[in-house]
Amino acid sequence: MLRETNVKVLKHLARCLYLMETMAKIHKEPHFDITVDENHVNEGAAEIIKILRPTWPIDEYRFKLFTNGISNKLVGVWYDGHYDEMVMVRVYGQKTNLFIDRKAETRNIRLLHEVGFTHCLYATFNNGIAYQFLPGDILTVDTVRIRSVYGLVAKRMAQMHKFNPIHPKISRDPFIWDKTKKFLDMIPKSFCDAEKQAKFQNIIQSRSELEKEYILLKKELPKLNSAVVFAHNDLLLGNLLHNKNEQTITFIDYEYTAYNYQAYDIANHFAEFVGLDNVDYSLYPEESLQRDWLKIYLQEYNCSLNVSEDDITDLYMKVNQFVLLAHFFWGCWSLVQSEKSTIDFDFLEYAAIRLNEYFKHKYQTFASDLDGN
After folding, report:
1. How far apart are CA 44 and CA 201, in angstroms?
2. 51-104: per-residue pLDDT in tens?
3. Which of 51, 146, 300, 321 is an S-S bond match for 158, by CB 3.0 to 4.6 Å?
4. Are 235 and 268 in contact (CB under 8 A)?
């Protein structure tokens, strides 16, 4: 008994020592008291670069808009002849701080960079971050289906899921329930824009109905006993960077990174095979592709090439139930964005697409439970 107690104490001390060493290694980046106007991103990014890279000749600044994303705006800045030294400047979408924990995001980037998962964070400013440029191409609905590419994604996700960050402010409970509830609570009872309000009433289920669906999901999905892992939670195609020369995949954008269900993170990625601007559910990965993807994932996650068909089937079944939660989550998120965001994107239409997909498959997934009620 005494030996067991001593072992536990030693393990606890070792864990505390590791935490202290890890925190000491992670240097906090500078913060600039600058707010970038999202309508004048280049000008704002230039102000950041003047401080961050004071030796760069201002008259030689070059800018590249990487995406007019549906959450943030991203621009790369370099100077003539030094493209490889580019600094990425990401400007947060308006009011996204209401539902995204920016301190958690930067903390996650630091932790993941320390173990070689992602880019280095150079600086923060009032409404964004500046970070290291990594060469590569974001995935498309075509490239994500190539086995040599999706194999890299599967392995990288498994590696991330095995990462066990030690930090006093990182909760090990699945983040998805509190975050989904927050989105539900933020869905406007009525939209300021009359046209949006009319469209909302025509194509979106009532808020009370959505709340009932949340209760159903929270009741049923935990019964699957999916592992809880450190997950990205937002692996849409634009957040996957493929370096063809080095044959690597890097995950970017850690706004929603937290502990969550393993099956959810995989399901959420599969749901993004269909694209974003022109959603096409005929592109959702078929069972054979999913099973091959899951086999590669499990080989890496279990550190063994011997993966049984039963193990693949078990994870496959869990993934194809958790995909309901992915549809529901981003549907609710999109309703919030429709009222808050200034980015030119039809969030209401996207919400309808995701929620319709949820309701389309809900009864089939929970048929026995619903019949029992």
Report:
1. 39
2. 999 999 999 999 999 865 677 899 999 999 999 999 999 999 888 888 899 999
3. 300
4. yes
